[in-house]
Amino acid sequence: MNLELLTLNRYIIAGPCGAETREQTLATYDALAGLGIDMFRAGVWKPRTRPNQWEGAGNEALEWLAEGKRRSGIPFGVEVGSVAHVAAAINGGADMVWLGARTVSNPFSVQEIAEALKESEVEVYVKNPLSADVELWSGAVERILAAGIERVGLIHRGFSLGGGTEYRYPPVWHVAIEMHRRYPMLKMLCDPSHIAGSVAGVGEIAQRAAAMHYDGLFIESHVEPQSALSDARQQLSPDELRELLAHLNWRKEMSANPDFVAALERLRAEIDALDAELLSVLARRMEVSGRVGEIKRANDVAILQPARWNALLEGLIGRAKSLNLPPDFIRSLFELIHEESIKRQ
Ligand code: PEP
Ligand code: MN
Question: What is the pTM of this model?
Answer without folding.
Answer: 0.88
